[in-house]
Amino acid sequence: MKIVSFGDVHMATRNLALMAEALRDCDLIIVSGDLTNFGGIDDARKVIDDVRRACPRVLALSGNLDKREVMPFLEEQGVALHGKGRVVDGIAIFGCGGSNITPFKTPTELTEDEIYATLRAGYEQVKDRRPLLMVCHTPPFETKCDRIMNGRAVGSTAARRFIEEVGPEVCISGHIHESAGVDRIGSTTILNAGAFKDGGYIVVECDGGRLDARLEHV
Fold first, then answer.
1. In this structure, what CATH number is given to the domain that contains residue 83?
2. Nearest-angstrom CA–CA distance, 159 and 137
3. Computed from CA positions of residues 113, 116, 119, 123, in that sequence, does the dihedral angle turn out positive or negative?
4. Number of helices and strands (H, E) in the chain?
5. 136: nearest Cα among 99, 170, 169, 173
6. Per-residue pLDDT at 209
7. For residue 111, how far is the Cα from the chain centroid?
8. DSSP label of 198
9. Per-residue pLDDT tens for 167-208?
């Protein structure tokens, strides 16, 4: 099982054309949020259609820069991960879109309590399965994946708490473009690929029930 994941697309899907080799044996693409730039259903549809042309099997979250209407659209498309748990080829996957509260009043922001409840709702649907892959647009608080330019940590305390409680093997995040990197919380590997237009993406492979996750670049 091979998963390719990227986020913070903001309509810029052109790097898909450069990923023929990476996607050749890809079983699933996960889009980890911010499909659009303050866009709604029409913009989100364009991104999902481009991604499906690269790999027909897709799961996705909306991010904080996607309008609220994108969440039900992704549900209608059968690809939503927000508050959902899905088992794909033996891997239990659950997620939370949007972001924690920002100073910028972006379209889809959630309180920490809402983030925790959303992650819990998705996890409850797959909690008896392993390996476990968590996808949260906002990275967990105080990691190498949630630092803005001045070095301040702005990630989600709820996401961190949930990881500490549940211990998924891997957490895919995004949101903070300048904080692409890899870190760990306990036994959980945390990854942020940065903005897709800058060429970053994540590969997760499952072999014998073990998840191996790494950052790659176009």
1. 3.60.21.10
2. 10
3. negative
4. 5, 11
5. 173
6. 85
7. 18
8. G
9. 999 999 999 999 999 999 999 999 999 999 999 999 999 988
